[in-house]
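User: My collaborator sent over this chain with a note saying "see what the structure looks like." That's all I know about it. Can you take a look?
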Amino acid sequence: MARIQLTREEACRFLLLKQGLLGRWRFSGKEGALAYVRQAGCIQFDPVDVCGRNADLTLQSRVRGYRKEMLSDLLYTSHALIDYPDKELAIWPVEDWPAFRNYRERSLAHAQRFPELPALEKETIAFIEQHGPVSSDTLPIEGKIHWHSSMHWSGNWGGLSEASRSCLEQLYTDGVLVIHHKAGTRKFYDLASRHIAQELLQAPWPFAGEAEYAAWRVRRRIGAVGLLWNRHSDALLGTYLDKGVRDKAFLDLLDAGSICEIQVADVRYPLYCLAEDLPLLSEAREKTHAFRVSFLAPLDPLLWDRKLIEALFGFAYSWEIYTPKEKRKYGYYVLPIVAGARFAGRIELAADSKEKTLTLRNLWWEPGIRQSRRLSDGLEAALERFLAFSESSTLKREDMMP
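Assistant: Without extra context I'll predict from the sequence alone. Here is the result:
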């Protein structure tokens, strides 16, 4: 297939249409939340809660009528979704469980490095079988052992670790346990066999080899963002693909007609979309779409490759949560604003669950954004939706707003 030509404006509209952030609402209610996670492959979890946790913020921006209990129900009642590593800490559809069999096998091999684990793991499983879900605080295993997690985001990489936490986390990455529920940031674990269908637990790895698996990972991340280039990209974090493997995956997908190559005017590198998303191109070439304002999560799939977003939209975003206060340009927890077909600014919100108050701390518009009645009405509608999402009854506006 010949390379498809797009203007930057068309590429931006394509991305926002794909993400359900432009035009009519594509996702609605709990089923819409599940549909979006399936489209993205995974969404990132982060425990920080200033105005909502990252996974909930991701869904509220594009799922009409979204409420936090919807994600909780999908994770811990219907078990249609599961907490498990993918792009860092993540949430993904349970039907993908067989695809991560190789990850679990590497975890099992990693556990063999720690001779103290087997007896404690057996004790842990027996306790859970008899007493049900446990956290590291309620599992009656004391002391410390030599252990570190195989997941780069967790674990003590040297020395001793709490035995109870070590057993639970190791059995979790092995796929023996799953997260049953969370109380705040505290995780409670239960046996995977109680919550995942046996046909999924026992299913073989669904790939003919590592090359096919790599192509699946690349295709999944292209679908998550909408457009992606074959470059070193934060969108590919957690896939562990070196350049040679990644290059072959892109070529294999092109040869199979599974992805399409797109050249965007004034963008140096070609971009790729899923073949099934080609019908969106005709919509993207239209200039008239229903106007909406949305507030994005800091780790939203659309923002996974921030260099790409800057190249297309001219919007440079940095999550300043780990930036020293004196060096921050905006704030600790600032959300990008999408208005219509462009990134229009940033907003700083804080929710107080006890007082049921949502505070608008600050608002920054991008240069060149014209203040209009449509923008003002769109912002107010977005704030009303966010007020309901945050389960707040009062919106407070601080005087410090420019």
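A starting point for your reply to your collaborator: Residues 351 and 358 are 4 Å apart (CA to CA).
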